[in-house]
Write a structure and sequence with these properties.
The protein is mainly α and 176 residues long. It folds into two domains: 61 residues, no CATH class; 97 residues, no CATH class. The chain is built from eight helices and no strands. Helix 2 packs antiparallel against helix 3.
Length: 176
């Protein structure tokens, strides 16, 4: 039987429905894995977008975004570390706290050190002024506070740490 509104074949068989769900779930997981490789985690906004995309049959949009990000970030002469530092600096200049924090942690995941993040914040002072510098140092201080186990406004959320969402040891961050 065919559904008159969608043109899709209708079925009451649960195994047919689960096969479709497994395919969509597998595709969504592949997108999540790209973010984990790049940033070390899947940002909350990406998880929310993927849920919507799956729920409303728009997963190809998220797959296209992930594919473009992969091309731009992976097939780029700057390399992952520098790419994440550039993202961090651009987002500081734009005043985008959440995304800047994600890319600061992504830079650490890609091999940058805390000194690199501070250098980017200092550069943002020249290109975008004291607000960008202050935002950058606030984010770096928040990352260090999180690593030391102290509560910080910047440590809220789930956009940092390793692939399991655990923060990296403070000693390791400082050594980088």
């Amino acid at each position: 039987m065919t559904d008159a509104t969608t043109g899709a074949e209708a079925t009451d068989a649960p195994e047919a429905l689960s096969a479709v769900d497994d395919t969509a779930a597998g595709r969504a997981e592949a997108v999540r894995e790209r973010y984990r490789r790049t940033l070390g985690v899947v940002p909350g906004g990406v998880r929310a977008r993927l849920r919507l995309a799956q729920d409303f049959g728009r997963l190809p949009t998220e797959e296209a975004i992930a594919a473009l990000r992969h091309i731009v970030l992976t097939d780029n002469p700057l390399g992952a570390r520098v790419q994440q530092l550039v993202h961090f600096g651009q987002l500081l200049a734009l005043g985008r706290t959440g995304p800047a924090r994600i890319h600061a942690r992504g830079a650490l995941h890609a091999g940058a050190g805390v000194a690199d993040l501070i250098g980017v914040a200092e550069t943002a002072l020249i290109t975008a002024g004291v607000p960008a510098y202050a935002l950058g140092t606030e984010i770096v201080a928040g990352i260090l506070s999180t690593e030391d186990g102290r509560d910080s406004r910047d440590s809220a959320g789930d956009d940092g740490g390793d692939t399991e969402g655990h923060p990296r040891p403070a000693e390791q961050l400082r050594a980088e």
